[in-house]
Amino acid sequence: MQDVRYAWRQMAANPGFAIVAILTLGLGIGANTAIFSIVDAILLKPLPYERSDSLVRIVENVPAEESFSGGPERTTRMSPGMFVEWRSRSTTLAGMSMERSVAMTLSRSEAVRLAGFEASPALFSILGTRPILGRVFAMDEETRGSDNVVVLSYGAWQRYFGGDASILGKTLTLDTASYTVVGVMPKEFAYPNAQTDFWKPLALPIDTEIFGLPVIARLKDGVSIAAAEAEANAFSRELRGASADAPQPAGLPRIQLLSIKEELVAPIRLPLLVFSVAVGFVLLVACVNVANLFLARATARSREIAIRMALGGGRGRVLRQVLTENMLFAVLGGAVGIGLAAIGGQLFVAFGHGLARAALNRFDSIGNSIPRLNEITVDVNVLLFTCVVTLATGVLFGLIPAFHITRTKTVHTAELLGRGASKLAFKSLRTVMVVGQVALTLVLLLAAGLMVKSFVNLTNTDLGYDPNNVLTFNIPQPPLSIGDIAIQRQRNAFEQEVAQRLAAIPGVQAAGYTNALPMVQMHLTVQVQPQGSPTATFGADVFTVSRDYFRAMGMRLAAGRGFVDEDRARTQPAYVVNRAFAKAYSQGRSLVGGPLAFSRFMPPGEVVGMVDDVRHMGIDSEPQPIVFVDPEHSGVIGVAEGGNYFAVRTRGDPTAIVPEIRAIVRNLDPGLAIDNVATMDQVVSNSITTPRSYAVLLGTFAVAALVLAMTGLYGVQAYFVTQRRQEIGIRMALGARGTQVLVHVLRQGLVLCGVGVGLGLAGSVVLTRFLETMLFGVGSLDIATYLVVCAAFLGVMIAASYVPARQAAKIDPQSILRYE
Question: How far is CA 388 from the centre of its chain?
């Protein structure tokens, strides 16, 4: 306690020193705590379900000769027939649930679109979650006709029904059908995501036998994934009629069981590990900075320590007192760090969140791909981590100054009490630490430079359309079955009427609709045979678009024309293709005016136009061959599952017309609602949520390290000038000019930086290779980025050296000589 009280008095006597040291440590500890809170929530914590380590996703590796696309496929979809058979015969799985996302319109005074989830009744028992009101599904509610029940999420119960405790047994109208509320789930239950408003039983049989649906399962107690996989593959071979020794595709088993958690976090595991290393560098730089501050302080306290030891204070006792002071600084820095971590974690959540659109949430490959964002918080695990880091930091930055300040022998006390007492031999140690600071900082700056350049490349990529002043939304309708041509045409007429009324709104330049909006919805891929290749085929995406869709999206016509009203009356459809299709089909030769035939699904027709390539699946994905067709000739493609998407181009703010859009839809059909309203700019921004988060995070760490390294070099140079004040004064008295002194001090700083830059470049060549999978349009050894970052870094470090160098050049030699 005496040591603690003395440490407080020392801090009070040097408040400027204390504030700088605490804030420096707080920055380093806070950055590490923030990253740990992210890593803990995403990678380390189990999923919020009972025994989540036994939850698995079933994946099938389909060989090219059996796949729909004609190439090897990896799919999580299982046919309902196989699901029922597997479920009844499995001895390794405790339960299986087939599932899919749905969206339904709740009829009330104004129709509301709800995001829902259809699943087998076993889902809730597999996840081990019980409702707070009522019950979950019974097994017999899997039968069509008995499936008219729903379980509400806590959020939907509060938002739409005011938390009515008597909600059980009440009837809701969803998509014109009646459903009875049988339960309400807990507030924290959010499967598969936080946007889910309700769950309903998945009734068998379903109308997706060809394509199938994803399946989640739970392993029985004591059963390994390997054992369950072996049973699954034996069962799969039996169903296919294959022999036990049939070859497997690409060396992988036909059926794989993947941990749900591993499947969820696999895409972000490497980035988080990279950021953990990066933030460790920030902490090391902070510790070196504070160690340098304490070394400088040790010089001023050398007389005090010498007197303590001369009066009988043992080295261990003095060392304990010095370490106590250091630990007090570390604890206070840790407290500041916790506050910074809480702020930083929430900023990461804010940057990482994308649009809460049902269509985006349905597909992992599009939109926000950072999982478990809502679970990031500063909890007990994070606080314990902070305590460990704080203690380690106190020891790390405190040991070097403490050992140096107490290594003086008592026999040298008289010398230390003289005028040379302040000249402890710390120069070489401080120099080494500054070089290390510079090297670590440069590695971070180069990594951040690569990430920023990658993000800039993404934002400057030609999308193939103009997203400015475009509003998008869809009008969800019940799904169509294959063959419902009459109903499909009624919907086409309805959506054409909506498009015409939208175009009549003042300020609207064009309005159209499609079944697959870029970066929002999936699409049908068909096989096409290139000209002159009787055996080869390639995949092409087929989109249905209305007449004015190209104008509404700002897509550029490269040849021919777009669709016109007369195309609807054609016996054979008119097609518009993109450049990628022309390249694959006819090696880039013009197709306009020529015929186009498909292997199946689509009827033959004539190519009437060609548009520039569109990056449909994301900015970082290469344009794929696309065929556009009028909705009247869409065949089995029909209307999109969640309803076609509209695109409306306006002269001003597109969101200003949302009330008019709602009025148009309400007047045409009061039972319908518009959903997923967003500007196209928001959709594009949403598609780069993850790389933006990465660039901001790594850039923040790099800037923090740069500030610390700059202050560290400034401190060393200032210390150098202070220690050599008399020498510099004598040199100037003997004829040295101020500019010579300035250059001399700057040269010392440049030497330190040069050595640090060399080590940093060597480290960057090795470490930045781990960023390759996160970069777009730039390599991990991009020369231009290296040159720009190194030049800017050296400029900043020279500026840090300039202030002490200028002070040295202004030393008055007369005052020095009088003192001597």
Answer: 28
**Burial grade of 175 (CB within 10 A; 0-12, 13-18, 19 or more):** middle
85, 204 Cβ separation under 8 angstroms: no
> ∠ CA(286), CA(290), CA(292), 5° rounding?
115
Q: Prior bond to 506 cis, omega within 30?
A: no
Q: Which uninterrupted H or E stretch holds 198? A: strand 198-201
| Contact criterion met (CB below 8 Å) for 419 and 771 | no
Cα angle 272, 276, 282 (rounded to 5 degrees) comes to 140
Residue type (1 letter), 686: N
Condensed to tens digits (0 to 9), the pLDDT of residues 50-83 reads 889 999 999 888 877 776 656 677 888 888 888 8
Q: Is 609 exposed, middle or buried (0-12, 13-18, 19+ CB in 10 A)?
A: buried
pLDDT in tens, 304-338: 777 777 777 777 777 787 788 888 888 998 999 89
Return the DSSP state at 247: P
Cα separation, 519 vs 359, in Å, equals 9
Number of neighbouring beta carbons within 10 Å of residue 597: 10
Question: Rounded to the nearest 10 degrees, what angle do helices 427-459 and 738-767 cross at?
Answer: 60
Beta-bridge partners for 646: 473, 513
- For residues 391 and 414, give the distance between their C-alpha atoms in angstroms, rounded to a whole number: 36
Q: Which helix (H) or strand (E) holds 155?
A: helix 154-161
d(CA 732, CA 124): 84
CA-CA distance, 459 to 482, in Å (whole number)?
39
Q: Global pTM?
A: 0.79
pLDDT at 453: 94
Question: Residue 69 carries which DSSP code?
Answer: S
9: helix, strand or coil: helix
Helix (H) or strand (E) holding 813: helix 813-819
Tell me how far apart the alpha carbons of residues 141 and 143 are, in angstroms, rounded to a whole number. Answer: 5
The answer to whether 540 and 526 are in contact (CB under 8 A) is yes
pLDDT digits (tens, 9 = 90+) for 461-517: 999 999 999 999 988 877 666 556 777 778 888 989 999 999 999 999 999 999 888
- CA pair distance 7, 276, nearest whole angstrom: 33
DSSP labels for 676-702?
Answer: EEEEHHHHHHHHTHHHHHHHHHHHHHH
